[in-house]
Each structure stands twice: as structure tokens, then as C-alpha cells.
Design brief:
The chain has 10 helices and 14 strands. By secondary structure, the protein is of the alpha/beta class. The strands form 3 sheets. A 9-stranded mixed β-sheet has the order 3-2-1-4-5-6-12-13-14. Strands 7-10-11 form a 3-stranded antiparallel β-sheet. It has a two-stranded antiparallel ribbon with strand order 8-9. Helix 4 links the parallel strand 4 and strand 5. The protein is globular. It binds NADPH dihydro-nicotinamide-adenine-dinucleotide phosphate (NDP). The site of NADPH dihydro-nicotinamide-adenine-dinucleotide phosphate has 27 residues, from helix 1.
Length: 325
């Protein structure tokens, strides 16, 4: 019925890409009445593998899938795109310095930011590839696409926190609302339960402080490492599910009396320096994220938010020195 929405996925032949593409094609990203056209971007040596995934997508006979194209050129892959999921990134290898990691990713996200100038007017960009917040900063700084279209993913951290809270309270995840992730998608992130509710009832004052500081916060922040240890491979399907949730919420809005977490370009709210791509409590409506305002921040929270935001500021300084932003 409607015209297909163009969705570009970078790193399409990777683990997350493999989990993500089938859910997008099934209609989970935008809605089960919205046809999609998939555009897969890969580096030349992974194009063949992406083509293999494209064959499997054909074989799945998804009714909403209008077509699939595979590219090794960012300009082409982003031309006219409506939703860009930037999953491909240069992983940190053993012994690699942070500056080297940032520089290698600058070589990916700077040209991708430039190529996004050819995207559709309503383009929405989600960076998943790590270091996601700073990769998003680099892309944004090298693009004419408005700053409010650039986001990075902390929805997986958010979902992990919601899962842990639901388990602790013996309820379904749907009972948990107003969870917040602040800061960087890294081990310094701050999962904040101050305003969290179970079935609409605030839990803040009754939370067991030692459980919070010794179990909950580190467990959420280090869940990625736990998955690697138990599964023997890094999280992929849960990261894909979070990317789906992030975009679905951005396009279709948050629920009444709830919010979610997303890393967006700071406007200076809550003392987060303007321009940093940092995670906030956000609502979404009419295709726009907005930071939830007016929350009182305790000393306990302030210290943790500042620690993660300082890390983001250091990453920004490092990429400034490299001439990437
Ligand atoms: P994955 O698909 O497993 O991961 C992709 C990226 O997502 C990594 O940067 C990874 O970070 C990040 N990520 C963010 N959150 C999570 C999470 N919760 N769990 C796991 N990963 C997370 O990587 P693969 O190596 O399987 O695939 C990457 C693909 O990207 C390759 O096919 C490669 O060719 C491609 N690539 C494409 C580029 C392009 O299109 N221009 C550029 C660079 C690479 P982390 O490394 O920290 O786990």
C-alpha cells in the first residue's frame, strides 16, 4: 500500500547484522504494515557474505520486503535512505590504544557522516558499532544532516536493566517503567533506578542499596562480558533486538507514563556538555526524541553520571586532536 521505507544496514554480514536483517524484513522495525527496502553496506571483502544473507532473505519470502541491494560504497548505500543503522565498526584488538581505536573508527564514521548528506530529508541514524557514542559524534560532526537525527544505542543496556529489575521483583518486564541509562555505552554507564516503577509504583526509596551498588549496577554495565563468557560469543540477537526497539520507539513513540533511554546529542541538560552524544531518559513522539526534564539528581547519581560523561568528554577531546570532529 504505502511506499517502501529505505533502511540501510552497515556491517550487514556481521553477527548483529545477521540477527537484525530478518527482523527488519519481518516488519519489526517500523510496523507490520510498512514495506521496507533493505540496503546492505559492507567492506569489499565481506560483500559476498552479505550477498549470501540477501539470498536467505529472499528465501524467507517476507511479504513486507520490497527489495535488497548490497553495496561496498557508502554514498550509494545511503542515497535516499530513511533509516541508517550503523553496525559495522572496527573492533578493539588486543593491545590497541584508545587513540588507535578512535582513529580507525574515524576512518569509517567520518566518510559515512559525509555520505549521509545524500540521505532522505527525514533520515534517522542509529549507531550501534562501538565506541558507539563517539562514532555517532564523528558522523554527526561530518554531516549536514541535523544533529537531532544522530543517535547511539543504549537501549540494550536499558533492556538489560529492565530485565534485571523484573527478575528481582518477580514481575514481567512490561511491569517495569521509567528506567534510565545515563552516559556512555561502556562500563562507566550509569543504570539509574531512582525513578523506576513497578506496575506504576515508584521503587526508588525502597531499593536495597547494597544490591544496587554491588549487584545491579555492575551486572548491567558488565553484561556484555558475562554473555561472552557464558555463550562463548558476544551478544548479537539481543543487540539486534535493542536496535529494533530503539528505532521502533523513535518512529512510533514511547508509551504514556513511561520513557526509554537513548544516546542523543546533548543540549546541555543535566550538566552534560552540549554536543556530546550521551544517554538520557527520553520520550519520543512525532518522530522526535526529547530529554525528560526536571528530574532531581541525587549526589549518588550525580557522581556516576559525571564519571561516564567525563569519559565521553575525553573521547571527544581525543577525536578533536585527531581532526575527526
Ligand atoms: P558484530 O556484528 O558482532 O558487532 C558489530 C558492532 O556492534 C561492533 O562494533 C560491536 O562492538 C557493536 N556492539 C554494540 N553493542 C553490542 C553488544 N551489546 N553486543 C555485541 N556487539 C555490540 O560484529 P562482527 O564482527 O560480526 O561484524 C562486523 C561487520 O562489520 C563485519 O562484517 C565487517 O566486515 C563489517 N564492517 C563494515 C563496515 C562498513 O560497512 N563500512 C566498516 C567496518 C566493519 P564490540 O566490537 O565492542 O563488541
Amino acid at each position: 500500500a504505502t511506499t517502501p521505507v529505505n533502511v540501510t544496514v552497515t556491517g550487514a554480514a556481521g553477527q548483529i547484522g545477521y540477527a537484525l536483517l530478518f527482523r527488519i524484513a519481518a516488519g519489526d522495525l517500523l510496523g507490520d504494515d510498512v514495506p521496507v527496502r533493505l540496503r546492505l553496506l559492507e567492506i569489499p571483502q565481506a560483500v559476498k557474505a552479505a550477498e549470501g544473507t540477501a539470498l536467505e532473505l529472499h528465501d524467507s519470502a517476507f511479504e513486507l520486503l520490497d527489495g535488497i541491494d548490497v553495496y561496498d560504497d557508502a554514498q550509494q548505500a545511503f542515497d535516499g535512505t530513511n533509516v541508517a543503522l550503523l553496525v559495522g565498526a572496527r573492533p578493539r584488538t588486543q593491545g590497541m590504544e584508545r587513540a588507535d581505536l578512535l582513529e580507525a573508527n574515524g576512518g569509517i564514521f567520518k566518510p559515512q557522516g559525509e555520505a549521509l548528506n545524500g540521505a532522505a530529508d527525514d533520515a534517522k541514524v542509529l549507531v550501534v558499532g562501538n565506541p558507539a557514542n563517539t562514532n555517532a559524534l564523528i558522523a554527526r560532526s561530518n554531516s549536514d544532516v541535523p544533529a537531532d537525527r544522530f543517535t547511539a544505542m543504549t537501549r540494550l543496556d536499558h533492556n538489560r536493566a529492565v530485565g534485571q529489575l523484573a527478575a528481582k521483583y518477580g514481575v514481567r518486564v512490561g511491569s517495569v517503567s521509567k528506567m534510565t541509562i545515563w552516559g556512555n555505552h561502556s562500563a562507566t554507564q550509569y543504570p539509574d533506578v531512582t525513578y523506576a516503577e513497578i506496575d506504576g509504583k515508584p521503587i526508588g526509596s525502597e531499593v536495597d542499596q547494597s544490591w544496587l551498588t554491588e549487584e545491579f549496577i555492575p551486572r548491567v554495565a558488565k553484561r556484555g562480558a558475562e554473555i561472552i563468557e557464558v555463550r562463548g560469543a558476544s551478544s548479537a540477537a539481543s543487540a539486534a533486538a535493542a536496535a529494533i526497539d530503539h528505532v521502533y520507539t523513535w518512529v512510533n513513540g514511547t508509551k504514556q507514563n513511561d520513557w526509554t533511554s537513548a544516546a542523543i546529542v546533548s543540549d546541555g541538560s543535566y550538566g552534560v556538555p552540549e554536543g556530546l552524544v550521551s544517554s538520557f531518559p527520553v520520550t519520543a513522539s512525532n518522530g522526535k526524541f526529547e530529554i525528560v526534564q526536571g528530574l532531581e539528581i541525587s549526589d549518588f547519581s550525580r557522581e556516576r553520571i559525571d564519571a561516564s560523561v567525563n569519559e565521553l568528554a575525553e573521547e571527544r577531546e581525543a577525536v578533536q586532536k585527531l581532526g575527526l570532529v
